[in-house]
Amino acid sequence: MPKPKKQPRPKAQTPKGFRDYFGAEVARRQSMLSEIARVYRLYGFDALETSAVETVEALGKFLPDVDRPNEGVFAWEEDGDWLALRYDMTAPLARVAAQYRNDLPSPYRRYAMGPVWRNEKPGPGRFRQFYQCDADTVGSASMAADAEICAMLADTLEAVGIARGDYVVRVNNRKVLNGVLEVAGLAGDDNADRRGIVLRAIDKLDRLGEDGVRALLGEGRKDASGDFTRGAGLDDAAAETVLGFTAARRGSGRETLDRLTELVGDSAVGAEGVAELAEIAALLGAQGYGPDRIVIDPGVVRGLGYYTGPVYEAELTFEIAGEDGRPRSFGSVAGGGRYDDLVKRFTGQEVPATGVSIGVDRLLAALTAQGRFTDADDGPVVVTVMDRDRMADYQAMAAELRNSDIRAEVYLGNPRNFGNQLKYADKRGAPIAIIQGEDEAARGVVQIKDLKLGARLAAELTHEEWRDQPAQVECPRADMVAEIRKRLG
Fold it and tell me: Which CATH superfamily is domain 380-488 in?
């Protein structure tokens, strides 16, 4: 009788396009989100948590990656219904606004934070699960709502540590682009798909450059991997009209608006979009948000198809080293706009709405690149174990530190090798280790080993200098908390 085939062990690896987050990363994200929530609440927005799973019908089909299964969402069938993981925070908000419309205030301001999932082709820095942080106003058609979102976005970036001058919030209006597309011959329902391709092409301008976008506006483009993306099929003249729109920004907001007026020609919807941009600019100017923070920029399109009016994007302008080692601007970390038709899918009635979404992982990467989290990397104080029978004493030390709001833990591995305990403390990023053996306990003292200072002194000082500035000191057990607090600053 043949032996049963041995079941292979599962591979310990994350699925393609996903990643794991460890202690310091999670703590940094929580700290940043807490600061963002503080600003949102200052503007009167309330928190909302929705389910990670929605019906496919409720989500709609708005993802740009149309060549993926289920229009780019992770979906499955259950009891005759199709369910999917949310791909953003806006579609669930539209469902909530419709479902609870009789209970919610109007306008309704909410913010939401959490992971979203997209069934898109992963690539460098492009994951299938990532965090978003949204703020939206549902029920107001006023351009003051859009201006407020832009102002709040600028305030949020500065609150988390992005200095003024290192970012710009760029504002455009989808109606202006619709007017330009009318001029280019893409009006009407028959051209809806082609308009969508144009939107997604322009949205990739900073990544693909003018030649890449021109290819997508025409017959299509093949990327470095050999994958072919179908284009909008515009002729050369129409493509140049669209590219001229993306380059319409001038030296001042007024000059840019004048140029947009020229481009939309006789288009009524285009003229309406220009007027809305002028109103937003005036409202922001009255609040003190000048072009050093927020600008009118026709290059902002936003790829998602549900935007109906103003669109905006926050770009970080400071430079980082690219994969090729050359300096480049960090790029976009947030975007949003007005989507007056999204709630209408549920109610049949137009409900105006506008909002913004912050790419949490990208903003976190930007703050890390600027060194904003140096102090947040510290691990806990580690209480070493010199005597197994005195574990209760060591636990009492840790408890005393925690009661004083000092992060602390007792070493819980095999205490026989003291060197391994210090290696563990280093791996944890511990700033300090506490040592108390029989002799110290009998004398009522503890040894405090400043691990960070020790590492720095070992690298900087001579042996004689080291003797004069020891990184390990002895102090009375009763003074342990005060001494550690002083060393932690």
Answer: Anticodon-binding domain (3.40.50.800)
